[in-house]
């Protein structure tokens, strides 16, 4: 993973970062289509000081529109908490 000190966006991927008590935190969101036609929203977050993420959450949606709606909602919430 490249250094996420910068805000980066790709199609259906977003990496957000923030500093908490001098420690860098990251929040990665991805939407991917599965082999079964569902859409996976994957949320990965943790500290930049650790090799492994704190948590990986996977949610499945029947349509890209549903997954994107949740994706956008999570982004709004994270930006309110200071991620950029």
Structure description:
- This protein is α+β, with helices and mostly antiparallel strands and 84 residues long.
- The protein has one helix at residues 64-80, and strands spanning 8-10, 13-20, 23-33, 39-47, 55-61.
- The chain has a five-stranded antiparallel beta sheet with strand order 1-2-3-4-5, covered by helices on one side.
- Strand 2 and strand 3 (23-33) form a beta hairpin.
What's the multimeric state? single chain
- Strand line-up in the sheet with most strands: 1-2-3-4-5
**Overall body shape:** globular
What is the end-to-end distance?
17 Å
Count of helix runs? 1
Reported by name, the CATH topology is Pantoate--beta-alanine Ligase, Chain: A,domain 2
Which percent range describes the beta-strand content?
A: over 45%
What count of structural domains?
Answer: 1
pLDDT under 50 segments (min length 5)? Answer: 1-10
> Briefly, what CATH class?
Alpha Beta
Alpha-beta classification: alpha+beta
Could you give a short account of the major beta sheet?
A: 5 strands, antiparallel
Q: Helix proportion of residues, in percent? A: 10-25%
Q: If you compute it from the alpha carbons, what radius of gyration comes out, rounded to the nearest whole angstrom? A: 13 Å
- List how many beta strands DSSP finds: 5
